[in-house]
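INFO  loader      accepted 1 record
INFO  loader      residues=216
INFO  predictor   begin
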Amino acid sequence: MQITPQRIIRAAGNRAEVAFRSLLRLFIPFDPWHRMPLAAKDYAVGIIEHLNALPPHRRGRVADIGCGLGDILLNLDFEERFGFDSDPAALRAAEIVRRSHRRGNARFAAFSFPEDRLGGLFDAIVMAGWLHGIPPGSSRRGIGRLFADNVRPGGCLVIDTVSKNGYPHRHDAAFLLGKLGGNVEQIGAYPCGRRVWKVTKEPDYRVGPHISRRSQ
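INFO  predictor   done
INFO  writer      dumping tokens
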């Protein structure tokens, strides 16, 4: 493997971020898994790249459920960004990351899946890195409600599944997404049998497309 200046800079940045998060965890006891930087989560990088490549009128409002410290959310180029997590410590740390890293505007709030209800419509809802801890039946019911009630026509919902042994639940994407009535596509494949899926809701041509403030 060739060692380039870019690789050296990236490695140094990763070490600095791990050190920052380890120090932050001394004051806010979030799950130690969140010490892992974004660069070490290739599936998260893939989700960011895919969603940021959507046309501007499809990048209005985004919700990241199970946002952790905001690795995905704070790198999304959407007009309005909302991060939800069941861990108050992670939400507190995410707000510090947002401010200290100058990641623009975002709002964070507590949310417990699948019990809680989300308010409003979103162009994208992301649920990545944690669904393997929720039983299949509960996951399907919660995803179905979010897709029906909170995904804007023409918008999408993104999840990941894992197939490697050692995870509490190895979900089948067809079981979770097959009855939603949207267009399901795999948008990424990664180690541990991790697959990233996107299901897009059919546009409602009667009301016209969402008009982004970017284009006004």
